[in-house]
Design goal:
homotetramer; about 200 residues; Arc Repressor Mutant, subunit A; Tetracycline Repressor, domain 2; 2 domains; DNA-binding
Chain lengths: ~200, ~200, ~200, ~200
DNA sequence: CATGAATGAGTCTTCATTCAT
DNA sequence: CATGAATGAAGACTCATTCAT
């Protein structure tokens, strides 16, 4: 399975080359700490060439972001939509993150660290994507209810958001915040908590 | 209860004045997008005066951050440590966030939006605080297990992290991502999910 | 003979252009009193361009200094090393200064006025060059002793330093201190003093 | 004999206190690198107090300079005017420098390093003092001619300037340029050179 | 008199962007 | 198309000086 964000450069495809170089750079540093020259060098092109393909640094950043986000969303959906039990789908999604992180640990920074900052428009785009994802998760939950896998008295929206939150626990913990090393058992435990809760009384 | 981050300016207390002005500014814009002059103007002081109290813009930002974070952590702990049922404590903490957000909605941005970027040292500080908080939550869960309120077979660390995640669902949803308007019912639903899970089989 | 420090601008050679503009400016004013903008204007380039060729104002100053110093040292040595009587060599060196000053009067300021201040590294460089010059003068004196032109009982180091001092009397007097107008006779008298001393008894 | 520039502070005499503190500071660093705050701290007074006694930093610097210069000139003259053989007077003056440097080595920097820079007015003042000194030395030489100690066919002005130059060889060598350690023999050799020249033929 | 908090003019330096080649 | 030399707007920071206390 393809879980690499940054593919090997295809020479001749300058735009791609620059985009990937930019991603590479934005992974390590702030939008403001990365210079266009740096990106051009990383891409092996001249400074001016960057502006042949992207109207501005800002624009380039946005494209980097959606490039990464698209890849991530695609991975996410891939498992969400498999025809299988809802619990299995959810497990798959979360476990897929482990794999995704293993191959792109450092790289997911871009999505998580830079996310909310910088540009209003990007904000809007992100919110849109998140809403889509949320709706899809809610759809899955509804499917679960239909199949009686899932309690019918839950608040769907909250349950959806909490599910998305699980991915944060995994990604945030592993990548951003404390460089946690999560194993499959821990992730299993996490999903179990989502499924059964922590309370004893029932 | 005091839930205001930014108190009314006490004239004569220049340092506080500047700090609060800076918080105010950093709420709206990036570290890099806020200028020292802007902050000075907001504080009603001269540019040089800022440097009388803070050694650099960076330093000022860090102080803003811990200022906000300290306030938040304090609020958080206030409910965590109350002598009451574990579930009640957890509910209190989460509900307290509703209140906190109501009074400081825009202001909590600083904690969430700027969090991971910019300064390594701040990163370290944040991770440290988060670990402390996590340990306290885990402590609470252990208490819950002792009292048989909480299942004894859960993965404590994951349960702790998932609990912290609830606050993200609330804050993230309400403040950062989609400007959601959560009501008490919804938050109740969320806590219920944490407590009982979403699954039907048991 | 080429005795001009600052050649006419060769357009296209931006680095040279800026360097010469900077020399021009540093002649009139302090390192601290000259601004980078001023230099840029004098050079007819944009402010940023200066930084394309020199990493900092400090660096630019250092290059100005060695530029001038190199030129001076070269002139100095040119006469020192001619195959002729030692006395003639010495006269040539000193007289050459008259010529040098005539063409670069104002410009030698840079070497004399700014000399000892500002940068430790430059200090070291100057001391090194001076030592070299001193050794060369001492070599000349030794040659003089071998040829019996020069008394064999003199303190070589002191004699060398005193010779260098003659150039100071000329340069210092003419350029820096009192804007003296020395003629060939006066300089002849000076060299005569160096050669014969002032005392009557022998 | 009193050869210390900087006397012990007399408390209560704020002006003196500040002046001496400033001298102390200007010895180590540039005019531009020394801050008024630094001087105030060194003097043990408040920043504002400096301005009670000196109208500006510039003014303070000028006073420092003349303070040092006056002391130096006084030492210089002290020996120049003694009723004794001209050669002895000259030796005394030069040797006195050795003593002066021993006690104020680092401190004479102010006179030599900072001398020509910064302020036109100071320049004028220095030139004036130097002219006076030159005239006095020329007077001494005339006395020497009258007494037949000194050759009557020398260029007086040049001889005077060369004599002043001797002090530069001593001071410059010892203090500024190469931190030379001159002993009495070397200085004797130097004076001998001035007196007898370096040439063999006579 | 003495102070030091407050100030803002003045500088260096960075870097996204342009455009002539 | 590709380039990189040139640019200047923008911003952090310093520090001499003032003035209210």
């Amino acid at each position: 399975m393809q879980t690499q964000f940054v593919k090997t450069k295809e020479p001749g495809n300058k735009r791609e080359q620059i985009l990937l170089a930019a991603v590479e750079k934005f992974l390590d540093k702030d939008f403001y700490q990365v210079t266009v020259v740096e990106i051009a060098e990383q891409a092996g092109v001249g400074k001016g060439t960057v502006y042949e393909y992207f109207s501005s640094k800002k624009d380039l950043f946005k494209e980097c972001f959606s490039y990464c986000a698209d890849f991530y969303l695609q991975s996410f959906r891939q498992y969400l939509l498999k025809p299988q039990s809802v619990r299995k789908s959810m497990e798959d999604v979360i476990f897929a993150h482990l794999e995704l992180i293993k191959d792109n640990r450092k790289r997911l920074h871009l999505l998580y660290n830079e996310r909310p900052v910088y540009f209003q428009e990007l904000q809007g785009w992100i919110i849109g994507r998140r809403q889509e994802l949320l709706q899809e998760v809610i759809g899955l939950l509804e499917e679960g209810i239909r199949l009686k896998e899932v309690r019918s008295d839950i608040n769907l929206e909250m349950a959806g958001r909490l599910f998305l939150s699980l991915t944060y626990v995994v990604m945030g913990g592993m990548i951003i915040i404390d460089n946690l090393e999560l194993n499959q058992d821990q992730v299993s435990g996490l999903i179990d908590l989502y499924w059964h809760g922590i309370g004893t009384e029932k």
